[in-house]
């Protein structure tokens, strides 16, 4: 009986001989490739429901043989980025948590979620899609990611969607109130609300996060879905700050702003756009056209677009869908060596 072929190594794409003994999902050809991949994989490595390893934190789990070809069930997408960091501040040193943003900082409703490890080196701001709200979906997402040394804010769009049976919000007018038809870029009220209300309030909030909370603009990452992703890209392009990065799920520049000029030059903000090839709202061909204004505004070298096989108009639902996002987070979130700073015999050397 012919043997079942094993998945390729995720690093070098050669035939795998081992897999992560903790999550049982990711395959490697050698210990060397596993260690090379660990910095990005550890953010997503969730113990398998079949077998849980007691590997020490910060060290890659040892590889195990893949004699059993049966694949374990993939982690729940709400837990796929789960990590655990040890608590700090046992030495009595000043807290590394920054002050929470104040409600008076914006007229928009928001929910602040402190970092899981009391170290606020990064701030990720979440923008929901059309017809959604911050509770419960996006606050649950922000909490489930559990990104190390990262606080989060979920911001709610300002305007209720009319005639919805359930409460939902929109970042700009999206429907004709008489016919119920979806408004296109030719409708002036869309961009007017963004320019006159949404963008000024978000810029005010960003400045508050810098001036009051103490975040540097290069420590701020925006994460948006669909219409919320359009707003995240708009804020990064025209908000007057060079932010660290933007993650966009199924969202691009508003068509009204496609030919506009960025408020900061040069922009160094990194952009990741994730698009499903089964998205009913946009074909892959359309997506490849819509990415061009993003590349023009932010610079082609700063923009990456990933087309995810089998993904529709929604959030990624499995490990292959989440993996580009996890790698992007790993490459763009700052990390502070708290353990090293707390060593009494280590001193800072200034040039």
From TrEMBL:
The keyword Cytoplasm does not apply. Residues 48-71 have a biased composition (Polar residues). It comes from the Eukaryota. InterPro entries: AB_hydrolase_fold, LYPA1-2/EST-like, PLipase/COase/thioEstase, Znf_MYND. GO terms for cellular component: cytoplasm. Keywords: Metal-binding, Zinc, Zinc-finger. Residues 9-45 form the MYND-type domain. GO terms for molecular function: carboxylic ester hydrolase activity; palmitoyl-(protein) hydrolase activity; zinc ion binding. This is MYND-type domain-containing protein. It comes from Linnemannia gamsii.
